[in-house]
Design goal:
With 246 residues, this protein is of the alpha/beta class. It has a single domain, classed as Rossmann fold (3-Layer(aba) Sandwich). It contains 6 helices and 9 strands, in the order E-E-H-E-E-E-H-E-H-E-H-E-H-E-H. The strands form 2 sheets. The chain has a 7-stranded mixed sheet with strand order 1-3-2-6-7-8-9, sandwiched between helices. Strands 4-5 form a two-stranded antiparallel sheet. Helix 5 links the parallel strand 8 and strand 9. The longest helix is centred in the C-terminal third of the chain and has 16 residues. 52% of the residues are buried.
Length: 246
């Protein structure tokens, strides 16, 4: 088993916000963005399909590099961008501050104050990369998955897809209201997740599907992790949304 397939990233999660997200052409009302350090697997420039991978709370900026390399080994034309979250916690980074007082937690009703700024940061990074939205999937683990989902459900023009790995919902009602216009969504979650409740993720995927979204739901027996079966299913999702079904 490769290192990426054995990946168990200890990242915690957070919450979502009420404001409309930045468009792919930032609006004047967007919060001032902070410059992000973006690592790359594969060529930085080009017209190949792009996967943007957002790490989890408390993790180093390059935490998901092994996953990016594994996916590129399976889909060689894939380019992978790995932004580092702007908040330096000393022992890791975060997209916005959160409280870890309750575990496992259901954050579906939370609207974190820091999420609009995180969206603006990600928007600015994507603008700098000059992405083609129809050939781009934004994905993330834990808190990064929350940001990927929140951003992707609001992006205009729409992305090719969204993927959240052990992320769970925040501001779920806002997300569900956008389900009808959502790009394809990939969601995975462990039934024994000790940090974010499985039940909240399961409810989210059901309600997004009921609202008209095309959801690939991958539950698994395990905790807050990215197990081999999730990597396999994510590969298939990326091939379908980015590289064509092969």
């Amino acid at each position: 088993m490769s290192r990426a397939l054995a990946l168990v990233a200890l990242a915690f999660a957070a919450c979502s916000a009420p404001e409309p997200a930045p468009r792919l052409g930032a609006p004047p009302t967007a919060p001032a963005a902070r410059a992000l350090d973006v690592a790359f697997e594969g060529p930085r420039d080009g017209d190949g399909p792009l996967l943007v991978l957002l790490h989890g709370y408390g993790a180093p900026g390059r935490d998901l590099v092994p996953l990016g390399r594994e996916l590129r080994a399976r889909i060689p034309e894939l380019r992978v961008a790995l932004p580092a979250a702007p908040i330096d916690m000393g022992h890791g980074r975060a997209w916005w501050p959160i409280s870890l007082a309750e575990r496992p937690s259901d954050r579906s009703r939370e609207r974190p104050d820091g999420l609009p700024a995180a969206r603006a940061d990600l928007q600015a990074a994507l603008d700098e990369l000059s992405i083609t939205p129809s050939r781009t999937v934004v994905a993330g683990f834990s808190q990064g998955g929350m940001l990927a989902t929140d951003f992707g459900l609001r992006a205009d023009p729409p992305l090719a897809g969204i993927a959240s790995l052990s992320g769970g919902p925040v501001d779920a009602e806002t997300w569900i209201a956008r389900a009808g216009s959502a790009p394809p969504i990939f969601l995975s979650h462990g039934r024994q997740d000790p940090l974010l409740t499985y039940a909240a993720a399961d409810r989210l995927q059901a309600r997004l599907s009921e609202g008209g979204a095309q959801v690939t739901w991958v539950p698994f027996d395990g905790g807050h992790a990215i197990p081999p079966e999730v990597v396999d299913q994510l590969t298939a999702f990326l091939r379908e949304t980015l590289a064509g079904d092969r």
